[in-house]
Amino acid sequence: MTKTRLVRLWLVLGSVFMILLIIVYWDSVGAARFYLRTAWSRPRASEPRPSPGQQEGKEFASDVDEFLDKLLRASRKQSALSGRRVEQPSPLASSKPVLSAMEESVRGYDWSTRGAPQNPDPDGRQAKRRSVLREFCTNTSFMFPAKERSFDDIPNYELNHLIVDDRHGVIYCYVPKVACTNWKRIMIVLSESLLDQGAPYRDPLDIPREYVHNSSTHLTFNKFWRRYGRFSRHLMKIKLKKYTKFLFVRDPFVRLISAFRSKFELENEEFYRKFAVPMLRMYSNHTSLPASVSEAFSAGLKVSFTNFIQYLLDPHTEKLAPFNEHWRQAHRLCHPCQIDYDFVGKLETLDQDAAQLLQLLRVDKLLRFPPSYRNRTASSWEEDWFAQIPLAWRQQLYKLYEADFVLFGYPKPENLLRD
Predict the structure, then answer these.
(1) Which of 4-18, 20-34, 210-224, 400-414 has the lowest mean pLDDT?
(2) Most exposed of 180, 231, 292, 366 (fewest Cβ within 10 Å)?
(3) How confident is the model at residue 104 (pLDDT cuts 50, 70, 90)?
(4) Are strands 195-196 and 199-200 parallel, antiparallel or unpaired?
(5) Do residues 317 and 311 touch, judged by C-beta distance below 8 A?
(6) Is the per-residue pLDDT at 418 higher than 80?
(7) Model-wide pTM > 0.85
(8) Is the pLDDT of residue 134 over 60?
(9) Measured between alpha carbons, how far is 119 from 360 in angstroms, rounded to an integer?
(10) Which residues, 6+ apart, have CB-to-CB distance to 215 below 8 Å?
(11) Which pLDDT does position 381 carry in this prediction?
């Protein structure tokens, strides 16, 4: 009996050791060498050959469904031999100290994105923006909620804005009202996550808007847990180290004006029922409101910009639910103090930044960023829009969005914050 138990123990320990070796190998080297097919990626046989402007042989790991499946089968096989039943690969969690020690031996690996251009920041603009971010993320005198938490402390549902393209090694954090529709289109083309009559889209503008904002179209970090379980955070960190990460931001007050214009000045059934009706009841004393937005607009019942600011400043608002993504602070969507972004674009310099980013990603030969929307909300409109907002409210609103102003290098709007 004792001999049998020893044999089983050795088999279990052997399986654990093999799995840990596989994980560490994939973590340090394998992710840059294996291309694993998933529901979001097409077989390699159908991929176009790299153009002369692209790096030959540039391949990033796709999602590790196949890898994890093999790992799970190996674990079950070893456990079956030892007479034990295993439902899921548990060695990663149960042997965390051992794994951490083994990872120490591969820290010398170059995690940077391979094949980056020799001079990806010719005017030094990106260096300055990233420097400002790092400075205030490490400055203990500048604090805001959730600043000091680690990446592991971020709830899974707060990672839903991080879109992953495994084909080119890109992670994009989208901020609504900052050209995110067209950047999502770019990500769809790059990842080939959406097909048109059996073929992936090649022109971003060909992708219908309703598909662009459908969450099922994109692979986002918050979906990792459902697919990979306890492996999810580990895989996120690998991709964050290896992939090129970018986001685009905008003057926070101008972004609020843009959000108000698109969601409350235009007929939007969803936003009318979910947000406009409560605002009109609470801040305009309307007790009986039409059931549809078209009826409300016909009756002249619209949320005012003042109502919108009241809603944002009301302490009860976020007690009920977090801010909607269209007016939630950019740092709460993208976590720039926990994620070291390689590129920080701004809507104010969209054309230049978009061209520079596509060159950095080495995809400028494949596609171009769609032309900018002409009726864009301008910074010069701020004084007119805030003219009816009391000074005390403006000052409170600035405090609410101060972290976005500071982290992304936007000047404090002094003209709006004084008499």
Answers:
(1) 20-34
(2) 292
(3) very low
(4) antiparallel
(5) yes
(6) yes
(7) no
(8) yes
(9) 9
(10) 160
(11) 83
Strand partners, 373: none
Q: Please identify which residue in the block is written with the tokens 């340090």.
A: 28
pLDDT at 69: 56
Dmax over CA atoms of the chain, in Å, equals: 87
Question: Residue 343 corresponds to which tokens in the numbers above?
Answer: 């590129």
- Burial group, residue 132, by CB count within 10 angstroms (0-12, 13-18, 19+): middle
For residue 346, list its beta bridge partners.
249
**φ/ψ bin of 198: left (φ > 0), alpha (ψ from -120 to 50), beta (otherwise):** left
Closest residue by Cα to residue 14 from 100, 72, 80, 75: 75
Is the per-residue pLDDT at 410 higher than 60? yes
pLDDT: which is higher, 329 or 111:
329
